[in-house]
């Protein structure tokens, strides 16, 4: 991992610091459910952004850190974990067989967020990007428990790319390598958190300069709306 979990974190912090200068509060309805990437995230906490920071702002940082971690784990896997690397390459090949992948190629701050805005009650969507993203191509690997009768039959066209099922030994090896990859990811995560803690003063300064005034302005707006004679507080 060495060249640089820390320098990659610093690089992504610089990207986030540039992004935050352009941040504006959303005018549409936000997401209704909690974000699994950010809620309770040690990364968001290490950065000092866990409290009183809009989710979109947290999300832009946590997704950038996820990119750092994923890239490091991918490199480690490619170098040290041949069975897992092979399986991942197969599944990547299967995914690239998908015709349209709306969740790919998004900027970090948009990844992992809802693909579609909330529909209006009287105007449901004909289709949504989430539906398109959920359409998976058929599995390339068949279920391992095949009877001799079916495996001897002619392969049908849909399964011409089918791969032989994993042997028990391969399954054990794969499980062991997945465990190593998990451990490695945890180590990288800890280093990311430590580096973010060092960067915390810069992150908080950016929040104070670019986010806080806009949040305060929104709150002030809201208050003046509530005070409006068109919407009396005590009708
Ligand atoms: Zn999030």
UniProtKB/TrEMBL annotation:
Residues 142-153 have a biased composition (Low complexity). Residues 136-165 are annotated as: Disordered. This is Spermidine/putrescine ABC transporter substrate-binding protein. It comes from Cryobacterium ruanii.
